[in-house]
Amino acid sequence: MESRLLILVIIVIGAIAVAQLTRLYELASKMRKHGEHDIQDRDNYLNARLMLVFNIFQFGALIWLMLEYGWTGIGPAASVEGESTDWLLNVNFAIILFVFFITNFLLFFFAYKYVRKPGVKATFFAHNNKLELLWTSVPAVVLAVIIILGLQSWNELTSPSSKDALRVELYAQQFNWTARYAGEDNVLGKTDYKLILASNELGLVTSATIDSSIHAMRFGNGGIVGLQKLLNNRDTVLTDSTLSVLRTNLGRKERLLRLLNQMKATHNAKNDAPAWNDVIQKDTLYLCKNKPYEFTFRSKDVIHSAYFPHFRQQMNTVPGYGTRLKFTPIYTTKEMRKLKNLSTFNYVLLCNKICGGAHYGMKMMVVVLEEKEYVAWMKAKSSKNFKSSFAPATQPAVPADTTTNEMI
Ligand SMILES: [Cu+2]
Q1: Which pTM does this prediction carry?
Q2: Which residues span the domain enclosing 257?
Q3: Exposed, middle or buried, 253 (CB in 10 Å: 0-12/13-18/19+)?
Q4: Is residue 401 part of a domain?
Q5: Cα of 374 to ligand 1 centre, how many Å?
Q6: Of 15, 39, 273, 324, which residue is 20 to 30 A from 126 by alpha carbon distance?
Q7: CATH number of the domain to which 322 belongs
Q8: What's the gap in Å between 72 CA and the centre of ligand 1?
Q9: Does 279 have pLDDT greater than 70?
Q10: H/E element, 239
Q11: Residues 259 and 213 in one domain
Q12: Cα of 176 from ligand 1 centre, angstroms
């Protein structure tokens, strides 16, 4: 409080001092017999030279920053698509820098060159058709080139990936990534959020996972049977608000159970295989050099953004809406380490949307392997596919009560 008062006093005294100094300057000008609005030639020449100094400093600082940090950042692009993105960015920068240097040089140099000189009158120059035509048409043509090249790149990046592209799904949630490889058939199994359980956290659709979810909805922790028991128990007294919460919850679960039963009725067990051989992978995403990848994204909770800085790729992950992107890695992690002369280097997948408290930690290491190493890794991993890790819920947590089951 005291320090605030002190700051206020200092500000007021400072303002008074400035006002007094201005007054002093005005009086001094009057004594020297010229008005305070008259600008001295000496001041003009000083400002003209400072314009040049600023221009040199500005150009020097820009060149230094570019040499020190570059503009595409983070070393060479590590994917085919990244190289074309960098090329486009370089073209844009070349144009921007060319215009920047010319216009800024003229701006500051003219301010220096045409400083007011006693007795020299400025030329009156109002209009010139040729100039108008030139500075309208040249930027129009340059912009058209930039836009056409940009559209071309965009079309290449968003076009469907090749048929042999390896399919990988990235599942985002606060605050981690889970990868799902399509397995030997290179087909990702279907998913449904209603099937998400601790044993099936990506919600894959198979006959067994549907049965497990139906089972959990009935007998699991907080399931329908438990809720009904709680509501029908005459020994405990529940407040109206608790009763209403329990009833709403029960109604919601009964609706979900009906949907699960519908799913079970329409599901064909022949379609289980694509889901069963999917491989779920956490913490590190392994990729194969020179293989095209098709990534699809899902989000469990909020909007995240999958950002692969070294591959120059980024895509939002949106709950309830599938997104995709593709790229082909061109350097293994080892090769990139050599290129960057950095033995600790690793590719990363980051979340690039502020998605909550631990957003900063939402990342996945990415390792690019030679084909041989990749095949060996995938072979070892395929024996631990979704089928082998899935534990179906078979034993009722609460003994089945046939009458209750009839009711639901
Ligand atoms: Cu996130």
Answers
A1: 0.75
A2: 189-277+391-407
A3: buried
A4: yes
A5: 28
A6: 39
A7: 2.60.40.420
A8: 24
A9: yes
A10: none
A11: yes
A12: 7
